[in-house]
Design a protein that fits this description.
It is a single chain. By secondary structure, the protein is mostly helical. 71% of the residues lie in helices and 0% in strands. The chain has helices at residues 3-12, 14-31, 33-43, 55-66, 75-104, 110-139, 148-159, 168-193, 201-231, 241-252, 261-291, 301-317, 326-329.
């Protein structure tokens, strides 16, 4: 597959983008889910005993005391949410990016990448926010919920449908700059490591990891507020971002906004690397299937030979002329409809 086919894929096949995006989202969230559980526990208002330690200590303690399965509690709801959310996310990003680049007549426009990523986040978070609420309720230390279904029922019965979108504005306030920085950093990494924009697994992994780390570090304070809104722990029930900010500050001061920073970065580095490498692989693989023609139509060999000979003669006799003019300069015994001459 050549470069033009690979790069033209996003604008020509929404289905391919959605399939690749869904696969990337599921892989990203499932593989790194235990680290995400650690992050949630570290960001709770009142973490578990020992929850103030580093991410590795919290992870090992959770697995040792509660078993490996506990670290994956709630992963099913993330699979259900991440698939459609990332399908919309990547397909919208590719469409907006290519349309805006075409209009600006620019091949390297990082503001376009950031804007496309930020707009795509609106769709992504609209699908993912309810899944995030359920996931984080199940990830909490001593979570009272038995499973995903019982958690959904209890939230809906006691808090109403609004509870599933209580943190939506906070999540947008976090994810719009996160995804803007994420896509700018990824495309910048690609321009350095993969300027031809071909399928390059190493470049995709390194660029994705770099993008995830930088975006995660910059947006951790809002991620803490989102966790407080989603978990509604210990009778503290903030209803919006402003209240969540006040509560975090009252409980832990300025350092409280950076709880779980190490876990968040440790999660995002491999997660975004997995996400981008999976997405680019499926885009490349499905593009190859799309462009495979089982019954290729070839030109007759005599015609190709004749045209190549005429082009070669044209270049020899008049090296400054446009090669295609030979097709019009070729005189025949019939009437000439169009004769392009060299002035």
């Amino acid at each position: 597959m050549d470069i033009d086919e690979y790069e033209s894929l996003p604008t020509t096949s929404v289905g391919v983008n959605m399939t690749a995006g869904a696969s990337a989202g599921i892989m990203e969230h499932c593989v790194m889910y235990p680290v995400d559980s650690v992050k949630t526990r570290m960001q709770q208002l009142t973490p578990e005993p020992g929850g103030r330690h580093n991410a590795r200590t919290v992870l090992f303690k959770m697995i040792h005391q509660e078993g490996l399965r506990r670290s994956f509690r709630g992963v099913s709801v993330m699979v259900a949410g991440a698939g459609p959310a990332h399908a919309l996310y990547f397909s919208c990003y590719e469409m907006l990016k290519n349309r805006m680049i075409t209009r600006t007549n620019s091949q390297v426009n990082y503001l376009v990448y950031g804007a496309a990523g930020a707009i795509s986040t609106l769709l992504h978070d609209g699908v993912m926010n309810p899944a995030e609420v359920v996931k984080q309720r199940l990830q909490m230390y001593n979570s009272p919920y038995r499973d995903v279904i019982s958690c959904i029922r209890h939230i809906y019965k006691t808090e109403g449908i609004f509870a599933f979108y209580r943190s939506y504005t906070t999540q947008l306030a976090m994810n719009i700059p996160f995804q803007g920085l994420h896509f700018i950093a990824y495309e910048f990494g690609q321009s350095l490591m993969n300027p031809d924009h071909v399928y390059n697994p190493i470049a995709h992994v390194v660029s994705g990891a770099m993008a995830g780390a930088s975006a995660a570090a910059a947006t951790t304070p809002l991620d803490v507020c989102k966790t407080v809104l989603n978990t509604q722990q210990n009778g503290v029930k903030p209803q919006g971002m402003v209240q969540a900010i006040q509560i975090v500050y009252n409980y832990a001061g300025i350092p409280g906004f950076f709880r779980g920073l190490s876990a968040r970065i440790c999660y995002q580095i491999p997660a975004t690397a997995i996400c981008w490498s999976t997405y680019e692989f499926f885009k490349y693989f499905l593009a190859g299937k799309k462009h495979d023609d089982p019954c290729p139509i070839t030109e007759p060999e005599t015609f190709n030979t004749s045209v190549q000979h005429q082009l070669q003669v044209s270049r020899t006799n008049n090296p400054t002329s446009f090669p295609g003019t030979v097709l019009f300069n070729n005189k025949s015994s019939g009437p000439v409809l169009l004769d392009v001459t060299q002035s």
